[in-house]
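Lab manual, section 2.4: Encoding a predicted structure.

Procedure: take the sequence of the chain (408 residues), apply the prediction step described in section 2.3, and record the output as structure tokens. A sample record is shown.
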Amino acid sequence: MVAPTSFFLDYGCHVRILEETRALQRLGHRVTIVTYYLGRDLPDLDIVRTRATPWRSNYEVGSSLHKIAFDAFLVWTGLETVLRHDYDLIHGHLHEGALIGRLLSGLKGLPLVADFQGSMTSEMVDHHFLNPEGAWHRWARLLERRITQMPDAIVSSTSATALLLKQDFECREETVHALPDCVSLEFFHPRAIDAAVLAQSRAALHLPDDRPIVAYLGLLADYQGTPHLLRAATHLMAWETPFHLLMMGFPSVERYRDMARELGIEEHVTFTGKVPYEDAPRHLALGDIAVAPKLSTTEGAGKILNYMAMELPTVAFDTPVSREYLGSLGAYASPVGDSRALARAMHELLKLPRPERRALGRRLRARASAHFSWERSGQRLLEIYQSLLGETEAPRRAAGSVEMQRDT
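Recorded output:
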């Protein structure tokens, strides 16, 4: 797999890469992940990293001109890896991974699978890296169109992205497969958390006992709706709604802590900083409800599935992606980006009696189990691989390999 990111970090596309890999491993296949030089090594994963760039030893997530150099190093490392070993196919994550994957797959005559989690151009606009009215927007759009035409098969993290690829970028219907983000139901399980551990975590974070906890776990960024969530908290305070906001994530913690102070809500917010993926269930178990205020209408929002598995009633802006995950069980705020509407949806959930909230949480977990299981998704991914290799042709090795990389 080609992963143009600092795999593994504890958010978003990294989780998809990780869980797809583990699903393939459970089915008896071997996966090699080619990625940037930073990131966290995980047990039982074959990770090949690029060399470090001499002028920039550390960097934040997101769009950056420095990624051109990171991707050049990734190309070199990918070439070295593919030339030294035999693989059945190349699996490129995100648009950069698909572009690099095309070079590697062409070199060895292997099928290329691209894994898209939204629109590259829209993401660059969301990150304020590209002006939608500027001269470069058209060229970025043309490049994205060219990249989407390259793969032999495309898997998308949402049905909305699959529709976008077919309608806006005119990808052939038979090449596009919606493979939604999923959740590990055994890992994210509310009753797998020991009560004593939960009490210890609550005490360590100094969370109040007399107010319900609103949980958020993910990146802290404007396009993730972080400012909107903090402003929504001011409305809850004005309405005298009991709540305490548990903000779990990174980067820019100090920036948003300052914003909370300026808004006068600092006593109602706890910032934890980065939470390792391994600790995510324990932290989410502290919540009474959860919130996913992401503004993008094209990117996935896998955090919602983690909330659902943990039986947390969930508030989200009313986007196609949120609807795909939550269905009729979500608490939706509309229009997208309206902090007052977000606060109103949170208020409605918080005022529900606890038994009703818990019943809703159980229904959300049941929905996640029925539609968003990594076991089912892994089998579907393997079927796509096999269709490219020939339905009657067994893979050449007991290892169906893949290469990956990139940042959102």
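Check your result against the sample. The chain has a mean pLDDT of 91.
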